[in-house]
Design a protein that fits this description.
The complex is a heterodimer. Chain A is of the alpha+beta class. Chain A has 18 helices and 19 strands. In chain A, helix 1 runs parallel beside helix 3, helix 7 packs across helix 12 and helix 9 runs antiparallel to helix 10. Chain B is about 65% helix and about 15% strand. Classes of the chains: A alpha+beta, B alpha+beta.
């Protein structure tokens, strides 16, 4: 006993048993697939179905009720296997004058017949139906961006060469025109429509003679799956295309960065300048090279995969084989290891810190002098943008803005400059050597002290976070004029007026026993008065308590009294004299 | 050399010529064309014919009309268009040339032996 189905074939109704139906369905399904991309494919199937109906009727006449597998096999042997239909196709394609009815399905191939290198450009030209000169020019243009070579090699690897006639014709396909794109979309939609129809047909057929719900559901979901597949195929192509464009833009901008440079903090840097900095940071050229190598290896794999999958999504080339994927992963890993070890080596070179100080006596004929900041091209190149940079390049040389100046009261009998040079290095010795390799400006004119707020590193040394801290020790009574612009140099100078650094320039400052006092500031008189008041207060306190003071000073409105060790001769106390040294008028610039 | 394949290729080469020639005399539907061709042993399986007819129709060489049939659904009657007639003339000319050339070539080979 067998189940039967009722089918409509070429306008006739047939009863067919289940096995025969499956066989027939498979046969027609294969044919439908085969001709799905041929124009008029539906018509061919319809003709075949009509003919089948005739053959079944001829065979069974009116007497036999149900078609069985033997009938189906007999009819198929008359019509031929699905492959037999295709032989005809191949033959038709071989003739040149049949070009007008080639299928629209098109696959990218390398045109090895017209190749110059690998036939990639020629193949692409054939695919796009343009003259190969344009694709060749495109590759040459891309070559200058650095991306062209990579793209070419990838395409060379992944795009198969056109060897057979069919492949060569497939390579040419149809021109990419608006109407063809429209046709393509229509065919895809049509295919989806057919899937829906098929599904409906199948479901109907099952419904009539079988109540097997599970079977029905599985067929329904298979149909649904086919629709989803078709939609996904379409979506993937679109995504792949966008993806490729995105990757292309990313790579092009990377290439642009390398060749044209980029803007950071509104300052323009060229790649040469960046690599100059890298070279300064790294320990030697071999380490710099290994960083470059490591980075390239690390990036190569993912980059290749990005480009490859973009191409794959758009042109539908074969998936990458496992070996290639593994070697790419391996290369990336090696790149990462090289990169890691290089970074470790570099960080080792920043491990220890050391410094050395130099002291320079400043011998001027006047006790009132000027402090200037060197304002040359290099100075201005730090302030080209809105923000200021810590590092700049001028005429191929790097300059670092890590110089500070503080002003304190001299603890000696003269005015002097103490400079502290700090640096990092492999060990203390190396750090000290690096600290000594700095080039900066400090000059003394008749009454002017010139400072640069930057330094450069001498040939043969590298950037190791060097830092220069100048401290100007002024004799009490000396007056200094902080020229406009010196605010870029001075750092956290303590003063009786409690002025911030950026308010201090453009004013005259006198060193008193109590600290730096502004002579021409808004609050000068007030500050002076309050200081005198405080000092008098202190004087009485000291006298009353018979204190042995070492130093009295005022810091941020606090009075600091340092007591000296108990003296054997209290009568020789120095404090009254020191306190009297406070300036009492603007005119008298100093008093000791 | 695969003899069956060579024979099939030969048959295929003249298949279109025969179809066009047949339709030049009278219009026919697929079944009639098939039985004629089968008689002449030009086709082995019928399936070969359908893609060919569709393509010839698409390229404007053939046209068809639907005709009611007494014994079943309407039939597709194929006929030759003006383009088809021109194509047939061309193909016949080329067939004559080929026939002459082939005969000549075969006879040349045979003559010295006889």
């Amino acid at each position: 006993m067998k189940k039967t189905l009722t089918i409509n074939l070429g306008g006739f109704i047939f009863h067919i048993d289940e096995d025969a139906f499956n066989q027939l369905d498979l046969y027609l399904g294969t044919l439908r697939n085969q001709f799905s991309r041929t124009s008029g494919g539906d018509e061919i199937i319809a003709d075949v179905e009509t003919r089948m109906a005739e053959l079944f009727r001829e065979r069974n006449g009116e007497t036999k009720e149900v078609i069985n597998t033997l009938d189906v096999e007999a009819v198929i042997s008359i019509l031929g296997k699905p492959e037999d239909y295709l032989q005809e196709e191949d033959y038709a394609h071989a003739g040149a004058h049949y070009d007008q009815y080639q299928p629209y399905s098109k696959k990218i191939h390398r045109d090895v017949d017209n190749r110059i290198i690998g036939g990639v450009a020629a193949g692409l030209a054939a695919y796009l139906n343009i003259d190969s000169i344009w694709t060749r020019l495109l590759f040459i243009a891309l070559l200058f961006t650095g991306f062209g070579l990579l793209l070419y090699v990838i395409l060379w690897i992944v795009v198969p060469s056109a060897r057979t006639t069919a492949e060569k014709l497939q390579m040419r396909g149809k021109p990419v025109t608006l109407s063809n794109i429209e046709t393509f979309v229509r065919e895809e939609v049509h295919a989806v429509g057919n899937s829906v129809k098929n599904m409906g047909r199948k479901a109907q057929g099952i419904n009539r003679s079988s109540n097997n719900l599970a079977d029905l559901l599985s067929r329904f979901f298979n149909g649904l799956l086919e629709i989803v597949k078709l939609i996904l195929k379409f979506v993937f192509k679109a995504i792949g295309f966008i993806f490729l464009i995105a990757v292309f833009i990313a790579l092009a901008s990377l290439a642009a960065t390398v060749f044209i440079g980029f803007n950071l903090n509104d300052t323009h840097y060229t790649w040469g300048e960046i690599s100059n900095l890298f070279q300064l940071i790294s320990t030697d050229s071999s380490l710099y090279n290994s960083i470059t190598l490591g980075l390239s290896l690390f990036v190569l794999g993912p980059l290749f995969l990005l480009v490859y999958y973009g191409i794959r999504l758009v042109f539908g080339v074969d998936p990458l084989n496992r070996g290639v994927r593994r070697s790419l992963g391996f290369l990336s890993l090696i790149g990462l290891i090289i990169l890691g070890s290089s970074v470790y080596q570099i960080s080792e070179n920043f491990r220890s810190e050391s410094y050395y100080t130099s002291e320079q006596k400043i011998d001027l004929n006047t006790r009132s002098y000027k402090l200037e900041i060197v304002q040359d091209d290099i100075y201005y190149s730090f302030y080209e943008g809105i923000n200021t940079d810590l590092w700049t390049i001028n005429n191929g040389k790097s300059y670092y803005k890590n110089v500070q100046l503080d002003i304190r009261k001299s603890d000696k009998e003269y005015t002097y400059l103490e400079s502290e040079f700090k640096s990092r290095g492999l060990n203390r010795q190396d750090a000290r050597k690096n600290a000594q390799s700095l080039d900066y400006i400090f000059t003394v004119d008749s009454n002017t002290l010139n400072f640069s707020n930057y330094y450069s590193i001498n040939e043969g040394s590298l950037y190791r976070m060097q830092k220069i801290d100048h401290i100007l020790y002024m004799m009490p009574g000396d007056t200094v004029y902080l020229s406009p612009g010196t605010e870029k140099l001075i750092y956290n100078i303590k003063n009786l007026n409690n002025y911030w650094d950026y308010n201090m320039d453009g004013h005259y400052w006198t060193m008193t026993q109590q600290g730096l006092l502004c002579v021409d500031c808004e609050n000068s008189d007030q500050v002076r008065a309050s200081v005198i008041e405080k000092v008098e207060e202190i004087e009485t306190t000291i006298k009353e308590n018979d204190l042995n003071t070492k130093e009295v000073r005022i810091e941020n409105d606090l009075i600091i009294i340092e007591e000296a060790e108990a003296s054997l001769f209290p009568s020789t106390k120095q404090y009254p004299a020191k306190i009297n040294a406070l300036i009492t008028s603007k005119e008298s610039s100093f008093l000791i | 050399m695969n003899i069956e394949n060579a024979k099939a290729q030969m048959r295929k080469g003249v298949l279109e010529l025969c179809i066009l020639n047949m339709l030049n005399h009278r219009d026919a539907y697929a079944n009639e064309i098939i039985s004629e061709l089968k008689k002449a042993e030009l086709i082995v399986v019928e399936g070969t014919l359908y893609p060919l007819l569709t393509r010839l129709k698409n390229s404007g060489i053939l046209a068809y009309r639907w005709e009611e049939s007494s014994s079943g659904p309407p039939r597709k009657y194929y006929s030759l268009t003006e383009i088809g007639k021109a194509a047939l003339t061309e193909l016949l000319k080329s067939w004559e040339n080929l026939k002459a050339a082939v005969n000549q070539s075969i006879q040349k080979d045979i003559k010295p032996q006889s």
